[in-house]
Amino acid sequence: MKMHSNLLITGASGFSGQHACTHFLKKGYNVTAVTKETPLTSDKFSSNYCNLINKDEVMNLIETCKPDFVLHLAGQNNVENSWNDPISFIEANTMSTANLLDALRIVNTKCKIVVIGSALQCEPNHLDTVLNPYSLSKTLQVFIAQSYRSLFDMDIIIAIPSNLIGPGWSNGVCSVFAKKIVMMENNLAEKNLEVNNLLAQRDFLDVRDAINAYEILIKYGQPGEMYNIASGNSYSLEDLIIELRSLTKIDFHLKIKVESKFEKQVNINCLKIQELGWSPKISFKKSITDVMEYYRRLS
Fold first, then answer.
1. Which of 45, 148, 201, 294 could pair with 167 as two cysteines, CB 3.0-4.6 Å apart?
2. Widest CA span of the chain, in angstroms?
3. What domains does the chain contain, in order, with CATH numbers?
4. How buried is 126 (Cβ within 10 angstroms: 0-12 exposed, 13-18 middle, 19+ buried)?
5. How many degrees, rounded to 5, is the angle at CA 234 between CA 229 and CA 240?
6. Residues 6+ apart with CB under 8 A from 187
7. Is residue 27 helix, strand or coil?
């Protein structure tokens, strides 16, 4: 990797995107942060507004920035909302990717691109296993990325992170629960925490560990490969709530919305990324503690 490489980060204002901008700036990359809304304000990196589903705007972005690397984090990722507006999710997660890859095909096919998939995606030849419109949109996104790799010999890598947690604004269950508990601490909410399935299993990975993995993929990832990125540990939502209880003096009541059903423990094979030298460094307890402290600072 050449010094001061130009790295374009889409979805820069999102949960992962903000951590990515901070991380790669510290590592000496020339970062261009791309947002759908108002550009980020910083004197440390270039910030651009771009609607990635607008082909002309994307082409102008790529011609202007001429990135050596792209970390494609942009998209929509709320499963519940995807049921209400599936087309917007398909647009945000597929057309944005197609426009981005096509602009790079025209301007610089040697650019190395890391596309962020989802643990909820499925194999294109098993579309009958799609669970929701979000899952469909991420499955199509990855299929587009893999197709551009094979059709145009582009340097495209797929990263599949597990459930990301850590400090920062997020719609994930850890953040939702932590935010509610902090509101309880400030007498801004009833001391009730609603949960669907207490026995639901998740692999929770700190977002900062995920960003470290993305950097390793930028440096050493093999084109056309798909890399799982996970902690290797399975936690139930009950485990999460026990950890949260240990971090507050508030005595809250659990409201179980449906009868809890046993789920198999999550077991994600991360051998490919581990062989490149990556392993998670931040413990589950540390991640949850940092989430709580983040929302306390905001309150």
1. 294
2. 58
3. 6-161 (3.40.50.720), 173-201+233-265+281-298 (3.90.25.10)
4. exposed
5. 110
6. none
7. coil
Lookup: tokens for 97:
């990717």
Q: Angle of helix 173-185 relative to helix 237-245, nearest 10 degrees?
A: 30
User: Residue for token digits 């495209």?
Assistant: 156
The pLDDT tens digits of the residues spanning 109-141 come to 889 999 999 877 766 665 666 788 888 999 999
d(CA 57, CA 68): 19
* Token pair for 146: 């893999």
Task: Say whether pLDDT at 6 is over 70.
Answer: yes
pLDDT tens track for 59-78: 999 999 999 999 999 998 88
pTM above 0.85, yes or no: yes
CB 142 within 8 A of CB 121: yes
